[in-house]
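User: I'll paste a sequence; please echo it back and then give the predicted structure.

Assistant: Echoing your sequence first, then the prediction.
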Amino acid sequence: MTTYEPAYIRTYEKGLLKQKAARARNLLQSCKLCPRECGVDRLAGETGFCNTAKFSWVSSYSPHYGEEEPLVGTHGSGTIFFTHCNLLCLFCQNFDISHYRRGLPVSVRELATVFWSLEHRGAENLNLVTPSHYPADILGALAEAVERGFCLPIVWNSGGYDSVETLKYFDGVVDIYMPDFKFAADELGAKLTKVSDYSTVARAALTEMVRQVGPGLTCEAGVARHGMSVRHLVMPGHYDDSRLCLDFLAGLSPEITVNIMSQYRTCYQAHTIPELRRGIDWEEYRALLDYARSIGLRHVLDQ
C-alpha cells in the first residue's frame, strides 16, 4: 500500500484547489490558457485552434500498460486520452483523436467520475494525455474527485507546448510532469507541426516544470510518485536536432529521466515529408543513447 500523499491533497485542504479551478475557468472567457492565446470566449461556445468550447472531450480512458515502466507498476497507468490538440503534428500516431476529433464531451462532474473510476480499477496514477487545453476542467474535476476520496498521483503528459502561466496553476497539484521535448529548433517544429515557436515555448515550460517538482523521479516500490520524466521521439533524418534536445535536457539537469523513443512510424501526413517516409536508423538510434549518457544524463530509458 502506498504511503505517498499526492501534492494536491494539501492544496485542497488549504482551500486552494477550488480557487485555482475557478480562476482558470474565468480565463475561458478570453482563452489564453495555452501558448496560442486565441482569446475566444469558450464559455459562450466559441472555439479557437483546439476546436474546444466549454466542455472537455475525452476519447478513451483505462489502465494502460504501454507507458514507461515506472508509471505502469502492477496495475497500469490510469490513462485519459483527451480529444483535440494545440500542436497537430504531421506525424501524429493518434491523429484520429487529435486531428479527427474522435471523442465525446464530458462535464466536470463526469470527468471527476472518470478520475474516481480509474482509481477504483486499481490504476497506479492518473495519467492526463494531451491536457494543455483543458486545465480548468481538470482542476475542477480533481476538486470534486478529492471529495469522493480520490488520491492517485497526477501525471501531466503533454506535448511540451504549454503556457508557463497556466502551468503555475498546477504548482502543488501535479506530482509527475512527463512532457515531450520534440524539437530543439523552432524551424523544425514549424515544418512538422502547426506552431512556429515550439522549441522556445517548450524550453520555458520544461524549466517551469522542473521548478515545481524538481528534476529527479522519486519512486516507491518501483512505481513513480513524484518528479520529472521527458520523452523525445527520434525522427529519421533529424539526429542532429535530437542531440541538441539532449544537450538542453542535460543542461536543465542531469537528474531528469529521459526516454529516448524509437517508435516513430510514418503516420497521418508524414509521407509528405521525404525524410519521414522511412523508419529510424538503428545505428543512429544507438549512437543517440550513447551520446545522452556521454553528456551526463544519468537516467536514460530506451523504448
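The chain has a mean pLDDT of 96. The CA atoms of residues 47 and 53 lie 5 Å apart.
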